[in-house]
């Protein structure tokens, strides 16, 4: 591997940004491709697919064989609210490969007894996210029903480009939320990225079922990044 390519790849890893080390198998020449960088033709399609799946492997494009060494950050799920849904979601997220953490300033809810195996921050999102910033490989789910807790986190997630942003609540509740976010300076296109009501529509009613619906929607968002809505639906 070219030393400069390795240096670049390691820098992207440290910054929690996705990158691919592209190697021409015939010549041995290599270069680093960052996620979002334009790559044309059939190779571009293969690169985009590799970023979505996170899988390394050999591809053919334009009569040339390449090896794609894919480096993507481990996905992170930040849940705002130490509620029953969060309790059910925690073990599922771990099995699915997500690093999950919970933020809730309400110390009666945010206890190690209720969440023994999950990083737990019994503080306000404003404080926690200052030291643990959100990024493009983070999903945020706001489930407290309390605007004083949820709204800052939702605004931060939209500004950070989180790959998924979801919020618990009815359509009426979300309409009020939209107004508050508009008043806080968020655009309609930014607010439209919020999945509300949260989770895939599977008729979920119990906290455990809602947790399943939320995790499924998070995974769908992760694996359909960069696709059109029509293509994302076919990929789901």
From TrEMBL:
Pfam families named among the record's database cross-references: XdhC_C
Domain of life: Bacteria
Domain XdhC Rossmann intervals: 77-218
Name of the molecule in the record: XdhC family protein
Protein species of origin: Pseudaminobacter soli (ex Zhang et al. 2022)
